[in-house]
Specification:
single chain; 3 helices; mainly alpha
């Protein structure tokens, strides 16, 4: 509860009292002044409630922004970690492919006759399969 709500409530009560006193004593001017204080007190109390609600929304919005910022940073860090892991794995796959390719080339170089015979057989089989009539 803020100052405007308290003051507005008190002014409203004071106005009700003045209105009642004016009615009892038969003074219309006091009744009117009391009614004006009642309305002004109610308006001030309503303003205080609206201000308190706006402050609450501001606090909630600030907390929401802070939480979004924190989650965004955590997400960015997670993405960077995953990207680094993928780079590391990709380098491992590349290195393994290069190693295996070199092993195959070394084996083919050691067995030139067998390699030549296998390439010729593969070429013959490809040509025979692609021929229109068999």
């Amino acid at each position: 509860m803020n100052r405007d709500q308290i003051e507005g409530g008190l002014r409203h009560l004071r106005g009700r009292g003045r209105t009642a006193l004016g009615a009892v004593t038969g003074r219309p001017r006091q009744q009117i002044d009391g009614a004006v204080d009642q309305v002004a007190g109610a308006l001030q109390h309503g303003y205080g409630r609206a201000r308190e609600r706006a402050d609450g929304l501001h606090r909630d919005g600030s907390q929401f922004i802070d939480e979004a910022r924190t989650r965004g940073r955590a997400l960015a860090d997670d993405v960077q970690d995953r990207a680094e892991d993928l780079r590391r794995r990709g380098r491992g796959y590349r290195d393994e492919a290069v190693r295996r390719g070199r092993d195959i080339v070394a084996r083919a170089d050691d067995n030139r006759g067998t390699t030549l015979l296998m390439v010729a057989a593969a070429a013959f089989a490809t040509g025979w399969l692609m021929r229109r009539t068999r």
